[in-house]
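task queued by scheduler; priority normal; single chain, no ligands, no partner chains; default sampling; output format set to C-alpha cells
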Amino acid sequence: MERAGGAGAAAALGQRLAEGGQGHVLRFWPELSAEARRELAAELRGMDVAEINRFFRRARGDGGGAAAAAGLDARMQPVPRDVLGSASRDRELLPRWESRGLAEIAGSRVAALLLAGGQGTRLGVPYPKGMCDVGLPSRKTLFHLQAQRLRRLQQLAEEQHGTPCNIPWYIMTSGRTMESTREFFVKHHYFGLKKENVIFFQQGMLPALGFDGKILLEEKGKIAMAPDGNGGLYRALGAHGIVEDMERRGVQSVHVYCVDNILVKVADPRFIGFCLEKGADCGAKVVEKTNPTEPVGVVCRVDGVYQVVEYSEISLATAQKRGPDGRLLFNAGNIANHYFTTAFLKDVVNTYEPQLQHHVAEKKIPHVDITTGQLIQPEKPNGIKMEKFVFDIFQFSKKFVVYEVLREDEFSPLKNADSQNGKDNPTTARHALMSLHHCWVLNAGGHFVDENGTRIPAIPRVTNGRSDATPADVNDNLKDANDLPIQCEISPLISYGGEGPCHCPGPPFWSFFVCCITGST
C-alpha cells in the first residue's frame, strides 16, 4: 500500500513539476524511504514552481542588475542635508528627539522587529547568530543583550511618563533557525520580557537553482533551499498577519534591525523621535564610511529615488569624491537599521512587495548529480540563490530620512569566526562593547588606574581621523589613553545608552580588573 500510494503521489507530483520543467527533482523517488517521500512531497506541495520559474526569468533577464547599474555614477546624488539628522552634528537636537521617541514608547506605539534568520555558519557554530556568546564577562548572548535593552527602555519611558508600556518584539527567523530560537527563549524565560510581547514568525525559503534554472537537490530526497533574504520580511509580514497584529496593538512606528550588531540600540528613541519630527514613513540609520574603498553599501539617491548602492557598483573616482567639509560625498554607510511606519509597511505588503525583484548571488552549491546520484562539491560557482533586501522598499517611500550615528557607539557587526580575517568577529564585537561601556564610566565621572595606581588620563575620542569633541561636549566623548580595551561591561538593565550607568565618585576602577556592573537578570 505504501508503495502504491507512493507511486500515485509521485505521478501527481511528477505531472505538476514536469509542466514547470522541474520534473527531475523526483529522479530518485523510487530509492527513498516512506518517510523521505512524505517529507519531499510536503516540501514540493508548498512550492509554486511557476512562480519560481518567473522569479528566475526576472532575476536573470534584461531588467537585471547589469543594465540597471549602467552609468550609475552619473546618476548618483548624495543624501541632502535637509533629510539628514546626525548624532554628532545635531547634538543640540538630541534631547528633543529622545523625548519625542520616549513619549511614543510610553504610549506603546513603538515595536522592534529583529531580522534573525541567519545561522552562525561563518562563526563556526551550528546555531543561530543571536545565540552567540562573544566572551563578555557576563557571558550574555546577543539575544540576551537586546532583550535587556528593551526592558530598560520600557523602564525609562515609564519613569518619564508615569504609565506602563510595552515594546512588542517581532522576531523573524528562517526555517533553519525557528525551532532553536524559540527553544532558546523558552529556556531563558524570554529574558524577563512578557511572553505575549515576543512574537516569532518565519521568512520564506527559495530553492537554489542551477544556471539553467533547474532546482538543485541537496540530497536525493531533499531540495537545496535557502532563506529568501532579509527583504523576504515583507512577504512574511503578509503571510503571517504581522501588520494586522501591529495595528491591533496600536503600533505606529517600527524599528527594524539585524541580529548581528552587538551595539544596536533597539527601538532607539532618538532615531524614532527624529523620524517622527521629520514626518517620515521610512528612515535609514547609517554610519560614516571610514574610507572610500570600505566594502559597505551607501545610502544615496539614484535618479532622484533613494536606494542603497553596493560598494562594488561605484567607481573609485566617485567613491573618492569629497564635499566642501572634507567628508566623503557618498559617506552614508548602510548598517541594515531602519525605521518604518506601520502604515508604510501595510502599503508595502499589500501593494509594492510583488514589484520587488530578486537579487542574484552566484554560489558554490553542493548538490546531487541527477545522472549519477553522487554528491558534488563544486570548486567554482555552479548556481544561484535568489534573495530580496530589506532596503529594496526605500524607492516607495514618500518621505525618506537618514540618521547618522557614530560607528563606535552603535555599529560592530558579528560576521566571522575569530580564526578568520581579524574583522567583525567575536573579539572585535566584545572589544567594541567594552570600549563603549568604558567611555560611559568616564563620562559619568569615574576613572581607571593602571597596575601602579596611576590614573589613566582621559582624552577625546577620534572618529575617522577627526576629533568629534568640541568645548561644549568634550566630557561626553572621553576615552582613556590606553590602546587595550579595559574589561568593562555594564548591564543594559543599568544603562540603555550611557544615561547614568553609575555615579562614580569614590574608589577608582583598576584597569587590569574586570568591571562588570550588573542589574537583576
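post-processing summary
- The two ends are 56 Å apart (CA to CA).
- Residues 155 and 429 are 26 Å apart (CA to CA).
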